[in-house]
């Protein structure tokens, strides 16, 4: 994807970063962070230089998904400025708002506080040269979304949904937010997560637990690209809980599903 500087800025905020991709969802629990983490790892495995910012103030889950809950990023002085050094796992540099906020008080943060924290993660960290910076946004539409597009030239948004009706209605709202005049961020496409389930003992069967092809049909209706359909797989959930993203596993079929999503984003 070409770099698109949407806003006229006097100086590029992150001159070393080629593409900034927001990962969004209409509602929580659809697998947005799971997709963000695995997409980041898959992009890194394909040779890209990748950064990931966890901006999901209400449920920062990336430290856990990278097995780094007990780590804290270090600081460094660059040209007299205090900078945060992103952590690095599976070839991905990352920072989480969760490293800087106590999770019990996060929910009572007012919008501006959350927005300022996001700005710091972006501008006061030593990201260096990146081909892709992914930003895992909070679900829905919030001040954080506005801050992001006002602070950074966002290349595009990836929207994650399940095939379920209620998730889909929220996707329409999310997509129209990105496409609105004031935000104007191209939607790169939709990822349909939890698309089906296949039990190990019935490998030829697909059970469409949340409905069949909901994301695919919505993508067609909204004129969006379907970036991939990811099944419900126990090892995807376990990978998240154990801090080893499935995309890091070279021989996993389900890891390959994320590699395909990465290819359609690149
Ligand atoms: P969100 O960021 O949208 O709130 P998460 O990525 O945290 O959602 O996912 C919610 C839960 O669902 C997590 O426990 C995660 O491991 C699990 N999950 C997400 N996608 C899948 C999948 N394709 N198969 C199995 N479990 C999944």
Automatic annotation (TrEMBL):
UniProt keyword Kinase present: no
Q: Which residues bind ATP?
A: 26-33
GO BP:
iron-sulfur cluster assembly
The entry lists its GO molecular-function terms as:
4 iron, 4 sulfur cluster binding; ATP binding; ATP hydrolysis activity; ATP-dependent FeS chaperone activity; metal ion binding
Q: Which UniProt keywords apply?
A: ATP-binding, Hydrolase, Iron, Iron-sulfur, Metal-binding, Nucleotide-binding
Q: Does the keyword Hydrolase apply?
A: yes
| Function per UniProt | Binds and transfers iron-sulfur (Fe-S) clusters to target apoproteins. Can hydrolyze ATP.
Q: How does it assemble?
A: Homodimer.
Entry similarity comment:
In the C-terminal section; belongs to the Mrp/NBP35 ATP-binding proteins family.
Q: What is this protein called?
A: Iron-sulfur cluster carrier protein
* Species of the source: Mariniphaga sediminis
């Amino acid at each position: 994807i070409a770099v698109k500087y949407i806003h006229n800025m006097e100086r590029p905020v992150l001159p070393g970063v080629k593409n900034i991709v927001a990962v969004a969802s209409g509602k929580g629990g659809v697998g947005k962070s799971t997709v963000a983490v695995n997409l980041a790892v898959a992009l890194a495995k394909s040779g890209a230089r990748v950064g990931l910012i966890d901006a999901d103030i209400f449920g920062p889950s990336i430290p856990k998904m990278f097995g780094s809950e007990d780590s804290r990023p270090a600081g460094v002085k660059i040209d007299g400025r205090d900078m945060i050094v992103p952590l690095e796992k599976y070839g991905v540099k990352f920072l989480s708002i969760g490293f800087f906020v106590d999770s019990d008080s996060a929910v009572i943060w007012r919008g501006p506080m959350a927005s300022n924290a996001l700005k710091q993660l972006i501008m006061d960290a030593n990201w260096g040269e990146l081909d892709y910076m992914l930003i895992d946004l909070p679900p829905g539409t919030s001040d954080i979304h506005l801050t992001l597009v006002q602070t950074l030239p966002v290349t595009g948004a990836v929207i994650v949904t399940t095939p379920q009706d209620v998730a889909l209605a929220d996707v329409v709202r999310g997509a129209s937010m990105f496409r609105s005049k004031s935000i104007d961020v191209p939607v790169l496409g939709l990822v349909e997560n939890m698309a089906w389930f296949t039990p190990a003992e019935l490998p030829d069967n697909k059970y469409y637990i949340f409905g069949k092809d909901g994301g695919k049909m919505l993508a067609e209706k909204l004129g969006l690209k379907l970036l991939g359909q990811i099944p419900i797989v126990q090892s995807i959930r376990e990978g998240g809980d154990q801090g080893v993203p499935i995309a890091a596993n070279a021989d996993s079929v389900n890891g390959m599903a994320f590699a395909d999503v990465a290819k359609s984003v690149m």
